[in-house]
Amino acid sequence: MSGGHHDHHHDHAHHPELSFWRKYLFSVDHKTIGIQYALTALVFLFLGFCLMMMMRWQLAYPGKVMPVIGNLFGEGNMPGGVMLPEFYNALGAMHGTIMVFLGVVPMLVGGFGNYVMPLQIGAPDMSFPKINMASYWAFFVGGVVMLISFFVPGGAANSGWTSYAPLSVLATRGQTFWLLGMVFLITSSLLGSVNFIVTIIQLRAKGLDFFRLPFFVWAQFVTAFLLLLAFPPLEGAAVLQLMDRLAGTSFFMPEGLVVSGVPQAYAGGGSPLLWQHLFWFLAHPEVYVLILPAMGIVAEVIANNTRKPLWGYRPMVYSLIFLGFMSFIVWAHHMFMTGMGTKISAFFATTTMIISIPSVIILTALVISLYRGCIRFNVPMLFALAFLPMFAIGGLTGLPLGLPASDIHLHDTYYVIGHFHYVVAPGTIFAIFAGIYHWYPKVTGRTLNSALGKIHFFLSFVFINVVFMPMFFQGMAGVSRRLYDQTMYAHGDAVQSLTRMSSWGAWMLGLSQLPFILNFFMSLAAGRKVNQNPWEATTLEWAAPSPPPHGNFATVPVVYRGPYEYSVPGTQKDFFPQHLATEA
Amino acid sequence: MTRKFLLGTTVAIVVLGVLFVEAAPAWAQAVAPKTSVKVDGEYGPFMPPDVSVHGHKVDQLINLLHWFMGILFVGWGIFFVYCLIRFRQRPGHKASCELIKAKPSKYAEICVAIFEAVILLGFSIPIWASVKNDIPPPTDNPVRIRVVAEQFAWNFHYPGADGKFGRVDPKLIDTATNPLGLDRTKDGADDIFSLEMHIPVGRPVICEISSKDVIHSFFLPVMRVKQDAIPGMRIPVWFQAAKTGTYEVACAQLCGNNHYSMRALMYIQEPAAFEKWLAEKSKPAEEFQD
After folding, report:
1. What is the DSSP letter of B242?
2. pLDDT tens figures, B46-75
3. What is the architecture, at CATH level 2, of domain B139-288?
4. Phi-psi map region of A503: left, alpha, beta (phi>0 left; psi -120 to 50 alpha)
5. Domain A28-254+268-543 classified CATH 1.20.210.10?
6. Read out DSSP for A273-326?
7. pLDDT tens for each residue of A201-259
8. For residue A339, which residues of chain B lie inside 8 Å, CB to CB?
9. Which of A421, A492, A565, B187 would be a feasible disulfide site paired with A486, CB 3.0-4.6 Å?
10. Could you give the ipTM of this predicted complex?
């Protein structure tokens, strides 16, 4: 979709319709940029999913020839159709990188944030439309650099998405591309986050004070601060690692390294742990970047489909802000095994326990919001409801990992993989689906087919649990993550059947996405046409036409009330939109 | 709509159930390992056997946490499902926008916070302190081993009869004859080097973990011991075996292409057998035969 960009660039000297490309490709309209972000991110999510499905073959049937597609990947990666460990490691590293930095974050912040947030605050566009465009194209270049890395000698980065030094400094050339790609992606996020913060502070419609903001906007607001403050350390760290690789510095390299009997020429004096601190100082807030906007989407969908206000809106907002602050002082719980003493581990365990409280408050508020509601089980609501127990499992299984003593056994095992995937896969990804089904009518003026949507939901819900539930048992059995072949170990071999089950779940989950892909494209042309407010919602985006024109609103909206005035006593209808002074 | 939803949920649960039941027999049986050396103990989908003195504390904590998580999830789930059924959209039913005074939720949250505080202060911190920090003093007669990780092997370095480790210098490293770069003069003269880990039962063992190249992680599943091996650092970790047998040493941190095969064996022996092994290994003729 965006791949054709270079050709078009050459073309526009010959074509007079420069404005066409300005309109659809180099647009400064937040809605077009939002769509560009969302489509690019969906492509990357799909790609990341495909990499994982290939890994699952090697895990389920180690050393066996991959059927059908095994011979397409070249002798350097899969000789005779059998995956090499270096290719497996590259797939693992790139799956993580693509899903986090090129899939979920661009989808939640770049896609939903860009499209929905200005509409929800009644703004005609973002504060800095050109910075917005620059943000997308920086992201796009970062994505292209990451993709190119698959084709350089030695393949893509293969030191894990965490890129721990010294392994990553010594790694093949793909790692250099990974670092360059990250510099672009981080730049993109920084540009975006500044824009979001300014827009939310400056461009709110008249009457829309902070406590009348939809919860989704609050989530985007806090997320933007996390991106702004957490990413620069990683950008710095990426540049330092680049220097270690290219200029022979040793920021992360201690002295006396001997690799395969060969002493290394690094001057020494660096620290491998410094990289981990810088990385996790970003990457833990990043976890909340992955989850807060998802909570925002779920809150919107739940308020709309319970036909009542969110329970505990203010405590939820305070929890959100508190989560944002706390997420900066929990990072070292990823590093309990690096030789930490009791005092430091106690500090980070304590902050980790404290950060669980606001998450519990938000989740509880969302569940209590169901109480005395009138719950409509439409497709967005199904995904939003499924988010709640799935996120609960993800959150609860964080407990044994956040406590250093139980983490001793579970650290870096499949338990970790299960834990964070429950947060981001059936958690965040389900929220993304809820958002797509919820706002598709706003973007296209048509709804997605509900029967296909329900098939998509139920199959995904079943199979995603088949994928991730076994991982907790594997983790307890002691199977380490990132193993090319766990049957090397007795404790791994004993739970190989669980691995196989997980793999079959993953492939079935892949098939379960077909109804969605079909639905997504078919409904563009054949979906049922709907009015501008098909869900009978209260927030401002539904006051704009579907799709909203350039400048968004026909008349400048003025806000008279809170975001979720559903079933207000004494009104005719069960919803009272924010922009209406009196009930129409 | 609701009926469809309930039907869908039922179908989903049935399918899920069938899948689990199908896989269950496979879970239950412990499969013989592919690798040539048979290790002791039964392995399956829960915790591996525990042959250490302190491991039960870690296991207790993990159990306790899972009970807590289970109770919380089930209690929460019951309320969730109740809401979905009781407050579903249907003719004649309307949402009520009255403010709910949800005291129970406040109590639940306070309970969670108290439980977390108890588990943190009462279990996690003391266990961590004893397992990771309270290294046994020399009076406890500990066995001391330097564990040096490299791509993709574990080297075990014993101080020999004098109880002192020799000097190591990366410049002396020779992959064939001297993989650790051990200085064979002075303290290093009687040092013992092995690719297998031998330890006696009933005596504390202190391992000093380090690495020659990249970060590895020294993982003894049956001991509930894990410690990253970081180049440039030497980090002590201790444990005590309660039972003899042959078990696995695993690498838990991605360390390169053959990370998955970085497996060593740990032989827990009766003290006499352990001393005998040490004596055999220190014979000059057998130096570096591994």
Report:
1. -
2. 999 999 999 999 999 999 999 999 999 999
3. Sandwich (2.60)
4. alpha
5. yes
6. HHHHHHHHHHHHHHHHHHHHHHHHHHHHHHHHHHTSPPTTHHHHHHHHHHHHHH
7. 999 999 999 999 999 999 999 999 999 999 999 999 999 999 999 999 999 999 889 99
8. 227-228, 230, 233, 235
9. A492
10. 0.91
